Request: fold
Amino acid sequence: MADGASQALQMSRDELRRAYRRMKTIRMFEERVEKEFAAGNIPGFAHVYIGQEASGVGVCHDLTDEDYIGSTHRGHGHCIAKGCDVKGMMLEIMGKAGGLCHGKGGSMHIADLSKGMLGANAIVGGSPPIAVGAALTAKMRKNGRVSVAFSGDGASNQGTTFEAMNMAVVLKVPAIFVFENNGYGEHTAASYAVGAPSIAERARSFGLMADCVDGSDFFAVVDGMRRALDRARSEGLPYALETTCTRHLGHFVGDPQPYRTPDELAAARAVDPIKNFRARVTDVKLLDLAELDGIDAEIAAEIEDAAQAALAAPFPDLSTLETDVYSRY
Reply:
């Protein structure tokens, strides 16, 4: 595999700017979600993606709006990586009218079918079966699309995930299983709960081609994902990709994390995919710090606008209570 610097040289400046913009948008969006949750402006729970930005953005880098992704309870980053509108997302997360799901889905059920984002999922291991169904649709229609199921290390132990991987192999569908291994399934360490040397190795036992990459390195994720996409698009066959990354914060906003030592937390937060990316692209002089700082300022203004719009927006009208419950064909 090529190292990050050489891979950066193979990407256009526009590609690098887009990747950086999406990673930094995720970071700033999630930081604002933390703030608004603490202020009581977001109902329910919030699970932020801080520290895992390179994984989602790297996976989605070469996907189109026509390709599908199925997400997890930690889905804001996947939405942004797939190109969803941040103002519509903020409205949705605050439960406001005008949100991507009319304010009825919230953080853990956010979706945007126009972007191929089939939805976040509060059910651990919920997205792999959905993604296999979408991949089967692509196969039957012969439209060249692929379907990606995001899951965590916790979901890698679920029977739904096992059945989905087996079905993808048996039916020969273009499904890609992405396991974001951040070391913890809620509060339980993957080192204890995953009874295999690696998630990728276990996936191979289902007949899948599988790989494990550094999920904090955008370029490594893109490299791994391109191998997966080549198999899915050219051969119509499934693939599994494990991305190892670190969760900077707790399972949910406000999680005190008594299960992680201060030294472990410090080490996890020292692995920053955004700082890593900035160093890589500036070292090879494809982008400079001033340009990246300018992008940061633009994103900050966009997030502020989205937050203020969401705070000022009304809640869904009571008359809409029974709409969007069932789909009629």
In short: The first helix runs from residue 4 to 10. Residues 4-313 form a domain with the Rossmann fold fold (CATH 3.40.50.970). Residues 21 and 295 are 7 Å apart (CA to CA).
